[in-house]
Design goal:
By secondary structure, the chain is an alpha/beta fold. Helix content is about 35%, strand content about 20%. Strands 3-2-1-4-5 form a five-stranded mixed sheet, sandwiched between helices. The protein has a four-stranded parallel sheet with strand order 7-6-8-9, sandwiched between helices. Strand 1, helix 1 and strand 2 form a beta-alpha-beta unit. The radius of gyration is 20 Å and the shape is elongated. The two termini are about 35 Å apart.
């Protein structure tokens, strides 16, 4: 068990139960931390709403943003949370960087694609004019899907930057198209903005669900927490102590997407 509090932070949704609550329940069942709590926020960026009013604590608080990548919204919310929870707060990166999400995106698409080898897979991200993290994250999954699935074509488009989502249907090569919103939770963007801009009612594009409460995302959160705590413990060991220890068995480096040893 990880000591202290694990705090999941995500957008408030109309879903019942909300995906973030589902992930929190699973993580409690896994005894991943002394306490697992949730804070959500809405599109107004108002002060986050906690499931339990926090007190400033001395125990470690690890914050996991349940978002695909950093946005100005995420940064605002995280700053607010840090002020409310005290000085013992540390932060994981947004969970969208996990390679496990590639599998979730593929599964969402497979629910709609009868013949992937004759289908164009379209990833729809938020995008950002100022934060490259949004685009990099979607492109990371795009390349992995291209390499690891049978889809004839994999492309990306964005709500807030080029290539824009409203033009996406004109830049695919197949009549069969599946669009997957690369978002953790349902929101007005995934439920209204993207379908309208894709002109889903016109036909020709099947629209999949966002990542949501998929259990592979719970696994990704769990793995990220374990990795973060291990790195924190390593960095806490004084350098002199590390030098004085006998050499350990040399390990091979691991590639950054978690797919195994690099050469």
């Amino acid at each position: 068990m990880t000591p202290g509090t694990l705090l999941l932070v995500g957008r408030q949704t109309a879903a019942s139960p909300q995906p973030i609550q589902t992930h929190a329940r699973r993580l409690r069942d896994r005894n991943i931390a002394d306490t697992v709590r949730v804070e959500t926020y809405d599109e107004t960026w108002d002060d986050p709403v906690a499931d339990t009013a926090p007190e400033r604590v001395d125990e470690p608080v690890l914050v996991v943003p349940l978002t695909v990548a950093y946005t100005n919204e995420t940064r605002h919310v995280i700053s607010s949370i840090a002020r409310r929870w005290g000085d013992a707060v540390s932060l994981c990166d947004p969970i969208g960087h996990s390679p496990a999400l590639t599998d979730v995106i593929a599964e969402r698409a497979d629910e709609h694609a009868d013949r992937p080898d004759e289908t164009s897979l379209l990833l729809v991200g938020l995008g950002s004019g100022s934060l490259s993290d949004q685009r990099r994250t979607v492109q990371y999954h795009e390349q992995r899907l291209r390499d690891r699935t049978a889809y004839d074509e994999v492309r990306s488009c964005y709500v807030l930057q080029d290539p824009v989502v409203e033009c996406a249907r004109y830049h695919v090569s197949n009549e069969a198209v599946v669009a997957v919103p690369v978002f953790v939770s349902p929101s007005p963007v995934t439920e209204e903005t993207i379908p309208e801009r894709l002109d889903i009612d016109r036909g020709g594009i099947d629209y999949a669900a966002p990542i949501g409460a998929h259990e592979r995302l719970t696994d990704a959160i769990h793995a990220d927490v374990v990795r973060h705590r291990a790195l924190e413990q390593l960095s806490a060991v004084p350098s002199a102590d590390r030098v004085s220890r006998p050499p350990a068995v040399r390990t091979r480096p691991v590639v950054t997407d978690g797919q195994g040893p690099s050469e």
